[in-house]
Amino acid sequence: MAEVSEYKCPSCGAPMRFDINEQRMVCTFCSNSYDFEYIRSHFNEVSDKKLSDFDWVERTKYVWEPNILEQLAEYTCPSCGGNIITKNTSASARCPFCNHEVVVSSNFAGDLRPDKVIPFRRKAEEFAEKYRQNIAGSVYAPDEFKASSVTDGIVGCYIPIWVYSCTCDSVGGTSDSVRFRIKDFPILGTDIKKDIFYSVAPFQFDDAEDFTESCLTGFYAGRYSIGAENAMNHADEEVKQVCSARAALAAGGDYIPGMAVKESVISDKKLTYYLVPIWFLNVAYKGQDYTFAMNGQTGEFASPDVPFNYKAKLYGLLIFVFLMAVTFILCYFFVKEDYMSVPIALLITTVFSLFGASSFVFIASAIINYKISKKLRGGLRNAKSYSATGIKNYIDGDVKINGLNSK
Q1: What would the pLDDT profile of 23-56 be if each residue is shown by its tens digit?
Q2: Which of 207, 216, 270, 309 has the fewest CB atoms in 10 Å of its CB?
Q3: Which ranges does the record mark as transmembrane (predicted)?
């Protein structure tokens, strides 16, 4: 069985967990708190620190890691001795017998230890409030999204990522060499959906802490399942494609995809292993899962495309019927002459309303319904939707062409 560890209060021996408000480990019984430096020095975390000259890029040259398949693994609770069964990539778990939270230390041993961690700074209550404002508070939201118990399913997760920086020299279709600097591009180290992750990016990596397992207590966490080499290779392909296309534009040359990518050279590679915080909420509706997310550091909220309930169509239909009724009445008085009988006037009005005015009434009702629905739908379609962020958004600094600088 792999090694697991538990953080117990030095004063009373009760379990400790990470407190978002205090940014410290706090005892669940006596409320004593301890900062990260104390935890690192008193809980043998420093002994697991990688060598000072460790480099992930160099490691990929002699250590090849295939993508890890998730399987169930069994651990022993250090408090009660009970068996804990969870995924082999999980970095934190909860004992089903004594309910104590543990960290799977073996998933962070030696070279597998992350370089940095960004602790949670935004609480689940903030995520729940943003969800209620943007989604549950909408008149058009289906009942499944508005139930008071929905936010009980909010979970905080530390997501493993690789933060990649490099320099790319590309030929812009001519002899001109264009240099781009890619800085702090986050590459997923696990198989969650990219659109969900990049919708709550970016993260402020300058505010990260040296890695400590203690801040994982109380949250879900996992080690990377996509190794450094695979992650970097996929990123290099995108870097070459984006930079070669922009090089042709900057240099004024012709862009030939195959040739431009082939002649692109990547250097000055730097790779850092991070754990970053994200809040998740999953809502099931008509056989489909809708996942909401919030950046646990910056508070960036992202929402999927939530369907409207029946009221959206009903209100639109009522507006159309009302406008048609008004149009019918106005048309009747417009076409009715003294010599006309009522049946003839009604027939003419009906024909004109159905075949002449109905299309205009439909357009008018759609516009009115849109204006009204902007208030009734609340933030249902106003929140930031999922959208993947590419390498192009992480190009940093000047572009250099033959020694000349061009923004």
Answers
A1: 999 998 999 999 988 888 888 765 556 666 788 8
A2: 207
A3: 314-335, 341-368
